[in-house]
Amino acid sequence: MAKDMTLLWGSGSPPCWRVQIMLEEKQLQGYNQKLLSFEKMEHKSQEVLDMNPRGQLPAFKCGNHILNESSAACLFLENQYKSQGNKLIPDSPDAQALMYQRMFEAVTLVEKMVDLVAYNFRVPEGERHDSAVQRNKEALTAELKLWEGYLKKTDCCLAGKEFTLADVLVFPYIAYMFHYGLSSERYPAVAKYCNSLKDRPSIKATWPPTWHKLIDQDTFKTI
After folding, report:
1. Is the pTM of this model over 0.85?
2. Candidates 1.20.1420.30, 3.30.465.10, 1.10.3720.10, 1.20.1050.10; correct CATH number of 93-212?
3. Residues 6+ apart with CB under 8 A from 36
C-alpha cells in the first residue's frame, strides 16, 4: 500500500513533518522517500518540479494523486485510510468542531510566524526597518497568547484528550518555534503541550534529523 507513495521532503520543514507524522499515524511506513537539502537548493531540482511546479517541499504522490499542500495530503490520507492506524477525526460533534476550528485557526498562527521568519531571513540586515520587525514580533506575541489561553483549558491535545488531525497540523509549527528559541517560561501551557507530545511514536520516529544537532538559534527568543 505505502509502496505506491513517494515523499520528497526537507528536514526541519513543518509542512513536510506534518505529512510524515500523518503517514506514521496511519501505519503507512515503507513509502518511497527522499531527503533533500534546502541549503543546496535541491527543492528547485527537476525531480521536485515534476511533482510540485512551485519548487517547494513536501512533494507527495499517493498512487496517481499528487498532493503537495500538507493539509490537503493529511486530510486525504485520513479519509482514504479511515480504518487503518489511528483515527484522527473524532466522532463527537464537540471534539470535531473544536478540531476543525483549531486546524483552520492555525493558518493565522503559521502566517504570523512566517512573517517574522521571512522578514528576518529575506531582508538584508541593513535594509530592515525596526518598526516592521517590532510589528511582526507583536503580532506573533498576541497570537501565541491566544494559543496559550486555549492550551490552558485542554486535556493535553488541541481538541481534548485525543490526538487529532489538528495536532498533526499544528504541533510541527509549535515544536519549530521552541527549537528556535521560544520561551517555555513565557508560554508554559504551549510548552507543556509540546513536551507532552514529543514522545508520541509518530513524532519521535519523524523528529527532524537536523534537529538532533545542537543549534544555537534565537529567532523566537524575544517573542
Report:
1. yes
2. 1.20.1050.10
3. 8, 9, 10, 42, 43, 45, 48, 57
